[in-house]
Amino acid sequence: MPHDVRVGRIYDPVSTTEGSRVLVDRVWPRGVSKAAAQLDLWAKDVAPSTELRVWYGHEPSRFEEFSGRYRAELAQPDRVAALTELLRRAPLTLLTATRDLDHSHAVVLADVLRARPAP
Fold first, then answer.
1. pTM (whole model) above 0.70
2. Which of 2, 32, 92, 106 could be joined to 96 by an S-S link, Cβ 3.0–4.6 Å?
């Protein structure tokens, strides 16, 4: 059974069905207070490296290569350990400020978490 990992925007209204809310951006989103975000965790360490993020530039034509490079970064030991631990207890919603969720690092991260052995 796949893990219950969802992806959403930090700017969307908070829902009671989201489970653990985790911001997965390296930079705090503009216009969102920490209180309003209602986060369980800010996991900036799982975000793409600054170099990779700058290279990608949210250019959809680069998404496939970005995805492969980001998966390689995520393969580092213990990189997603905190998220895996949260996933043991509840569904997990990965939040990002990115407008294009389909071409975001959050969807790649969600796929990686879903593919891991059950916690």
1. yes
2. 106
